[in-house]
Amino acid sequence: MLTSNEFKRIKKLHQKKHRILQQLFIAEGVKVVEEFIAEGLKPRYILADQSYDGKVSASVERISSKQLEQLSAFKKSPGLLAVFEMPIEKKLNYSRWIVALDAINDPGNLGTIIRTCDWFGIDQILCSLDTVDCYNPKVVQASMGSLARVQCHYADLAHELKGADQAVFAADLKGERFDEVEWPETGILLMGSESHGLSSELNSNIDRYVHIPKSKNAKAESLNVGVAAAILLSALQN
Amino acid sequence: MLTSNEFKRIKKLHQKKHRILQQLFIAEGVKVVEEFIAEGLKPRYILADQSYDGKVSASVERISSKQLEQLSAFKKSPGLLAVFEMPIEKKLNYSRWIVALDAINDPGNLGTIIRTCDWFGIDQILCSLDTVDCYNPKVVQASMGSLARVQCHYADLAHELKGADQAVFAADLKGERFDEVEWPETGILLMGSESHGLSSELNSNIDRYVHIPKSKNAKAESLNVGVAAAILLSALQN
Predict the structure, then answer these.
(1) Paired sense of beta strands B124-127 and B98-101, if any
(2) Inter-chain residue contact A115 with B144, CB threshold 8 Å
(3) Where are the alpha helices (DSSP H) in chain A?
(4) Among A54-68, A158-172, A176-190, B131-145, which is the least confidently predicted range?
(5) Is some CB atom of chain B closer than 8 A to the CB atom of A223?
(6) Does A77 reach chain B within 8 Å, measured CB to CB?
(7) Touching check for B226 and chain A: CB below 8 Å?
């Protein structure tokens, strides 16, 4: 039985501060929970209400639907909620491609980028300190389990990029066409926020700017950052 | 002053049935509302609470923050909400590229696809009858105003594709590599849902299957459908 103290501690995991303090995070839904378990992450709790018919490969503790709703980050809980221990962070390996994100604050966008990186074999994301926390329940959800394989490393981006000896390719409308770039074997792909662009303090760290040309006469102002990242990641694979 | 009957009628626009009956839809946020007005859509109401400082180029009616919250589709209202008349649908023009969507039910995904189409100059989307309604407030929001320029046409997909004399390219893991395809000047790009794939009844209408190869050893199961559509749309432009 989940004690009321445990319940309260889990509920606090919706806040980044408490995730850091407890070194725990919430994942919801069978597919996501299954993937984390398969990748060796340690579940502290696996909780479900009576409606859940038990497909996950670990023992499930039953709680009331009302409790589950209170713990869920979603209007409608996916029916299964687990609390995992945060994996230990490995150091960034600059001998492989890294995606760097500057001030990406939409959880769905970060989740999508994590998932896309996983597809294209990139397992390291360098995030600015004002990028949304990768253990935010909505990021975890949108990443569809890929967060189990892709590590997000939070750091002062300008400082970190200065120290890196890989070429930094930044997505920016002023850049060259992405499909005319000869992408190197390794490097850093830097994406900024759709609304504010890249922080100016990063300028001195950028080696090349690349852009995704829009169609003649198109009036759209920008692409979604998850979409732009995907198009570029697809190109640098080929 | 908004009458209580008007308030009720607007609130009903969260339901597709009532959007169709009233031929009206809700758009929220300054940017989206501005774009619709700029593209010539007719606003029936433009509503904001006292906190809104009036940047939109049309006269705004003030309502209480509580009323605005009740009308908004979001946990936190973007502060401005407009009701627009649905534009009159034009017939599909098969002499240009068309994106066809089979059972895409996530509003964020449809919105992102609309926005990406707009960027790449595609202004027609053919949606299966079980694809989420493009006037769903969350689709409108995610499309960032691009819905003003990209038309979604809902129809029986199998029937519609049978009648089309353009080549149908379907995204499917069993297809050829998308980057080895010679894309024609016009055609139809068909995307299915991430979880269920393409409906089997569409098989006989498909001319070619294309896929986005994943990296060796990558364990991700699928790409987000908005991301996959974007990668393919980017390729067929070049």
Answers:
(1) parallel
(2) no
(3) 4-11, 16-22, 30-38, 65-71, 107-119, 137-142, 157-163, 225-237
(4) A54-68
(5) yes
(6) no
(7) yes
What is the pTM (predicted TM-score) of this model?
0.93
Is the domain covering B98-237 a CATH 3.40.1280.10 domain? yes
Residue B148 pLDDT = 93
What does the buried/exposed string (b/e) look like for B119-131 if buried means 16 or more CB atoms within 10 Å of the residue's CB? bbbbbbbbbbeeb
> Do the domains B4-85 and B98-237 sit in the same CATH topology, yes or no?
no
With cut-offs at 50, 70 and 90, classify the pLDDT of residue B31.
confident
Alpha carbon distance A47, A59 (integer Å): 9
Q: Find the closest chain B residue to A177 by CA distance.
A: B238
Mean pLDDT of A51-72: 85
pLDDT computed for residue B75 by the predictor: 77
In order of B37, B65, B142, B218, the CA distances from B31 in angstroms are 10, 20, 11, 38
What is the CATH architecture of A4-85? 2-Layer Sandwich (3.30)
For chain A, the average pLDDT equals 93
Q: Where are the domains of chain A?
A: 4-85, 98-237
Interface A–B counts its CB contacts (< 8 A) at 98
Interface test with A, best of B41, B219, B236, B238 (most A CBs within 10 A): B219
Q: Do A215 and B237 make contact, defined as CB atoms within 8 angstroms?
A: yes
Give the residue from A216, A205, A111, A117 showing the smallest Cα distance to A161.
Answer: A205
Q: Do B224 and A226 touch (CB under 8 A)?
A: yes
